[in-house]
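S.,

Sequence below, as promised.
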Amino acid sequence: MTNKKDGDDAVITLASDILFDFNSTKISDDAEEAIAKTVEKVPDSTKVTVSGYTDSVGDNAANKKLSKKRAQAVADVIKDKRSDLDLSVKGFGEADPVAKNTTKKGDDNPQGRAKNRRVEVSYDDS
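The prediction came back faster than expected:
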């Protein structure tokens, strides 16, 4: 989990590898606890956006669906823990990578792909 500021927004990034098994949208109990801790300090009645991302392996349309389902799964846990928050969910598939999916030679980059599989929770923190 990483935290950063993007203008007035706080952005909390949750690694999908910690939250989900490969090609799955089921959240583990440990991941549920991590998500609950993530939103503990979010101010009451705040608008929160949950955005899902994948790596570039597989079909882009399937990745977009998977990323949205994973974001929805995280949003469901948040809603369960903090029903006062105004949640929106987005799935971006392999868009907006934070690391290279392949090396300069075009070989697979597992470390980069792992960073791209993520769910971001963002809210106005001004």
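DSSP finds four helices and five strands in the chain.

Coffee later?
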